[in-house]
């Protein structure tokens, strides 16, 4: 049975550990996660599509990253990086962004208007984009990205 002196020593050790962070529990995303993700999402779009710079994507995309591109094409991380050269874009516009989070998983959904072309397709109409991120070791990692063209009727009805 524990003596009072031993109990006090245990509480002092636990208190010291908590004070120093030694016994802290890993936390989830910060309270500003929504704003942080929206900024990351836009920065990533601009880096990839306008600047054709894969550095940010390479740093945050998990190795098993997948993109579901328009037309049903599924590509991995290396293919997505190679595809950056196909873009000839002056500007992009991200509209109606929203973030949905469950635990350490978050999805960013938005409309993407592209002022430019992609070879061999040409000019895209508005696209709906959905990216899934995972909070790992204190930062967001990109797990997947899906893009689909907005149907003219959906645009007309304000649903895309």
TrEMBL record:
Classification via SUPFAM superfamilies: NTF2-like (SSF54427)
Gene3D superfamilies: 3.10.450.50
Pfam families: DUF4440
Top-level division of the source organism's lineage: Bacteria
DUF4440 domain boundaries: 38-142
Family annotation (PROSITE patterns): PROKAR_LIPOPROTEIN
InterPro entries on file: DUF4440, NTF2-like_dom_sf
Protein name as annotated: DUF4440 domain-containing protein
Species of provenance: Litorimonas cladophorae
Top-level taxonomy: Bacteria, Pseudomonadati, Pseudomonadota, Alphaproteobacteria, Maricaulales
